[in-house]
Amino acid sequence: MVVKNLNGHAIPPCGCGSWLSHWRRCGKPSEAFSRRQSCSVVVCNNPIEQGGMVQKEVLEGMRALGMVGDASWYVVPLCRECNGRWGATLTVEDGCGLASARVEETCGVGVMGDPTTQGT
Ligand SMILES: [Zn+2]
Ligand SMILES: [Zn+2]
Questions:
Q1: pLDDT (tens digit, 0 to 9) for every residue of the chain, 120 residues total?
Q2: 84 CA distance to ligand 2 centroid (A)?
């Protein structure tokens, strides 16, 4: 799956404490990914250190089908190095279990402002 790395450091974490804890609580990784225990970027083997904010890359065909939901922000587990590459396009494991960054749909713990509604 291809995602775009966003500057998630500007966003205060939800009540889970950090975005990595949020992913551990609300993400649904596959068994294989859970065993892997490393950064979700396919070519990276560094340990998981941070929760990174990403957006799914939306293909034109998907947009035509009305898949506006893909403008949503998600959290994936990344190493510090990959998380620091803001604006980069990352290929992540399909089984990495993206956690929605919309807290009202996941952990339900409020944040200041809602980062996921920008642009709408
Ligand atoms: Zn949370
Ligand atoms: Zn990495």
A1: 999 999 866 788 898 999 999 999 999 999 999 998 999 999 999 999 999 999 988 666 666 666 554 678 999 999 999 999 989 999 999 999 999 998 888 998 555 555 555 444
A2: 9
Does residue 89 sit within a domain? Answer: yes
> Taking the alpha carbons of 120, 114, 96, 6 in that order, is the dihedral positive or negative?
positive
Helices (H) and strands (E) in the chain, counts: 4, 5
Which ligand ends up closest to the CA of 103? 1
CA of 90 to the centre of ligand 2 (A): 10
72, 55 in Cβ contact below 8 A? Answer: yes
Q: Does any domain span residue 120? A: no
* Structural domain for 49, as ranges: 2-105
Q: Provide the domain count of the chain.
A: 1
